[in-house]
Amino acid sequence: MWELRGPPVHPTAPIQQASETCLDTRGWTVRALILPRKRHCLREPHSTLTPPALYDIGPPWPVDYRPNFIMSMSRKKRKSQKVCFVTVGATASFDSLVKAALSPQFLEALETHDYTDLRLQHGKDGQKVLEEFRRSSYTMSEEVQDLSISGFDFNKQGLGSEMRAAKGQGNGVEGVVISHAGSGSILDALRIAVPVIVVPNPDLLDNHQEELAEELAIQGYVVHGNLQDLPAAIRQSESLRKTQNPWPPADTGEDPSGKGLVGVMDEEMGFVD
Amino acid sequence: MPSLAYILASTLILLTTAFLRLIYILPAFHRSRPPPRARGTPTHLLIVLGSGGHTAEMLSLLTSLDPARYTYRSYVVGSGDDFSAGKAQGFERGLAAKEEEEEEEEEEGEKKRRGTVGLTGAEGKEMRGILRRAYSIHTVPRARQIHQSLVTSPPSSLRCLYAGLMLLYWHPEGYPDLILTNGPATSLVLILAATILRYFSFLPLVGPARQSVRGQGSAGKMRVIYVESWARVKRPSLSGRIIVWCGLCDRVLVQWKGLQDRGWGEYKGVLVR
C-alpha cells in the first residue's frame, strides 16, 4: 500500500517532484515509474480547481517497491546495449582468438569502454574454451561479471543479425566486430559500416590473410588486431569509429566508367553501347 | 611398308600442326576483340562456384548482373556442395524479384503513357516466367576432396574433367559464351575442358554444329574471365598462377592495385560489393 510519511506535500506542488522518490521508514526507496498514465492526475500548479485527494487512494501508476540494492542493479542494466561480436568463421577453428577474447585484460578493456555484451561465434572447438571460462569465471572481478557473455557454434543463415546487433541497430549504441581475417566476414562488417578488428590466424600455413589485414588497416578500413594485445585494438577501434572510410572504395583503377566486372563482361561478350 | 623417314616426317608435321593449333586457340597468344553483339541477343554465361568462400565472393561480384543481357546462367558446383547450390538458387531468386519489380514499374509507366492495357497479360506473364527460370545448376565430381591426398587426386581430377567435358558438350543451351570463375579447383578442370573443346572445334562434331544451337556465329566461344580473390593482396593464388601461366584465360582481373603494379592482371577497383 502506498503510504506517505513525513511532512505533507503542499497540494499545489507539482506531483512529479513528489513522486520521484519518497523515503520509506524502512529505508527503502519507493519509486514511481513515470508512465504516460500519470498525465491524468497531473495538476496545474496554479489551477483554480480544488485538487482531488489523490493520496488517500494511492497513485494510479505502478510503484516499484523493490529494495535499494535491486534497484541499483537494474539501473546498471538499463544502460544502453553495446555489443562486441567475435567471429572465428566456419572453416578453420581459431581457439586462440576465443581464448584471447575471454582473457581478463580484454574483458576489463571492454568494461572500461562501456560494453554490455560479448557475443562469440566460436565454432565447433571453441565451445570447450567457453565452458572452461564459465567454470573459472567466479574468480573474475565484480566489474567484469557485469558483462553478459554468450556464444554459439555457427549460424548457417549467416551472421547478419549479430553484425547488426554490434552495429547497434534496434536498441543500443555501436559496438565492434572482432573477426578472423576471412574475406567474407570482413566484407559483411564493412558493408554495414561497423568498426572491425581483424585478427589473422597465425596457425594458417599460406598466410595471405595477414597481408589482407595489413593492407586494409593501412587504407583505414579496419584495425589490424594482434592476439597478444586485443585491449589495444579495442582502444584503436574507438578512434576508427570516427575515421572509418566508407565501403566500397571509390577508386576504380584505370577504368573511367567504373563499371567493374560487368564492364569487362560486356566487353568480352561484345556488347557495345 | 613406309620408310622410317616418312613416319618421322609425318609425325613432325602432325606435331607442328597440333602446336600451331594450340597457339591459335590459346587466349594468351591470340588476343582478339569479340565481334559486336546486338542487345537482347540470347547469351549463355557459365559461373563456376567453389567452396564457401569462393561462392560467397562470386555472388557478391555478380550483384549488378543484368539478367536482360545475360539471359541464361549456368552454375557449376562440386558434388555434395549443397551450400553453394543453395546460395546460387537464392541469388537467382533475388534476380527474379529485381526483374519483376523493374517490369512492374515499366508496365505502369507504359500504361500511363498509352492509357490502355496493352497486350501483356497472361501471355506476357508466361513468357516472363520462362525467362525467369533461365538458369540451371550442375554438379560435377570434385577435383579434389577437402582432405584428399595428392596420390589419389589424378583419377578424381580425370573424372571431374570428363564430367566437365560432358557438361559443356551436352548442355541444352550449347556452349557458354563466357566462363566466369574466381579460382576453385573445380574451375581449373572446367577451364581445361573448355580449352580442349576449343582445340577440337575444327571438327564438325565438336565445333560449328554445336555452336549454332542459338543460330549465332559468334556464340559459344567460351571466353574465360578469371577474377582473383579479394583476399589476395600481394601474391596471386595458386589456381590463378596456373591459369595465367598456361594462358587459359582471356582476362584476369585483380582487386588490389599492388597486384597490378607487379604486372599481374588488370585492376578495375574493388569488385566485390
UniProtKB/TrEMBL annotation, chain A:
Q: Name one GO cellular component term.
A: UDP-N-acetylglucosamine transferase complex
Q: What class of enzyme is it?
A: transferase
Keywords on record: Endoplasmic reticulum, Glycosyltransferase, Transferase
Source organism phylogeny: Eukaryota, Fungi, Dikarya, Ascomycota, Pezizomycotina
Quaternary organization: Heterodimer with ALG14 to form a functional enzyme.
Q: Which Pfam families match?
A: Glyco_tran_28_C
Which biological process terms from the Gene Ontology are attached to this UniProt entry?
dolichol-linked oligosaccharide biosynthetic process
> What catalytic activity is recorded?
an N-acetyl-alpha-D-glucosaminyl-diphospho-di-trans,poly-cis-dolichol + UDP-N-acetyl-alpha-D-glucosamine = an N,N'-diacetylchitobiosyl-diphospho-di-trans,poly-cis-dolichol + UDP + H(+)
Query: Which Gene3D superfamilies does the record cross-reference, listed alphabetically?
Result: Glycogen Phosphorylase B (3.40.50.2000)
Purpose? Involved in protein N-glycosylation. Essential for the second step of the dolichol-linked oligosaccharide pathway.
* The protein's name in its UniProt record: UDP-N-acetylglucosamine transferase subunit ALG13
UniProtKB/TrEMBL annotation, chain B:
Renumbered to this chain, the Acidic residues biased-composition regions fall at 99-108
Q: Which residues form a coiled coil?
A: none
Positions of transmembrane segments: 6-29
Could you tell me the membrane topology recorded for this protein? Answer: Single-pass membrane protein
Q: Which Pfam families match?
A: Alg14
The entry's localization annotation reads: Endoplasmic reticulum membrane; Nucleus membrane
Q: Spell out the molecular function terms from Gene Ontology.
A: N-acetylglucosaminyldiphosphodolichol N-acetylglucosaminyltransferase activity
Sorted alphabetically, which InterPro entries does this protein's record hold? Oligosacch_biosynth_Alg14
Q: Name one GO cellular component term.
A: nuclear membrane
- In terms of superkingdom, the source organism counts as Eukaryota
Q: Which UniProt keywords apply?
A: Endoplasmic reticulum, Membrane, Transmembrane, Transmembrane helix
Region of interest (Disordered), residue spans: 93-119
> Which GO BP terms apply?
dolichol-linked oligosaccharide biosynthetic process
Quaternary structure and interacting proteins, as annotated: Heterodimer with ALG13 to form a functional enzyme.
Q: Which family does it belong to?
A: Belongs to the ALG14 family.
Functional note = Involved in protein N-glycosylation. Essential for the second step of the dolichol-linked oligosaccharide pathway. Anchors the catalytic subunit ALG13 to the ER.
The name under which this protein is listed is: UDP-N-acetylglucosamine transferase subunit ALG14
Species this protein is from: Letharia columbiana
